[in-house]
Amino acid sequence: MAVKTLSDEILIVTLSSEPKANVELGSFNEKISDDCNSDVIIDFSYVQVLTSPSISNLLVLRSLLNDCGRKLVLCNVAVITKCIFDVAGLDSVFKFANDRSAALTMIRNTRNRTGYRPSSKKNKHKFASSKSNGKS
Fold first, then answer.
1. What average pLDDT is seen over the chain?
2. Per the structure, how many domains does the chain have?
């Protein structure tokens, strides 16, 4: 997994193919749960098929970022992988872009159009906590 930081608070994450993608997403979620200060673009250039655990990690990441007022965009998603999102009913949950440039434009346009201001609060989620103690 390669993570590139852009100057305007955007991280571009290039995933490896499965099964590494799941492990990489889990590690990245831990990082984001500790410090949620960037919008994230996930580049699927090397991913052909996505496993259920990876999809779960993407849902966790989306939740973490949403709670911080940040955006998640998936780009360079292969047709077969996009079909997995469609069949699972997740095509409307995630934002998709054809490539990195389109993903960057999507995030920047969202900021400009809505007066988007990310939350300055740190995320209070406890990553990968399977037990809920009723606190958030």
1. 84
2. 1
User: Given a cut of 50, is residue 6 above it in pLDDT?
Assistant: yes
- List pLDDT tens digits, range 59-90: 999 999 999 999 999 999 999 999 999 999 99
What pLDDT sits at residue 110? 80
Long-range contacts of residues 128-133, Cβ cutoff 8 Å, at least 24 apart:
128/26, 128/29, 128/30, 128/60
Length of the chain: 136
Strand pairing category for 72-75 and 95-97: parallel
Helix 20-34 vs helix 52-67: angle between axes, to the nearest 10 degrees?
20
CATH code at position 61: 3.30.750.24
- Cβ neighbours for 124, distance < 8 A, ≥ 6 positions apart: 67, 136
- The per-residue DSSP string of 62-99 comes to HHHHHHTT--EEEES--HHHHHHHHHTT-TTTSEEESS
Amino acid of residue 16: S
- pLDDT, position 131: 33
* Domain range for 103: 2-113
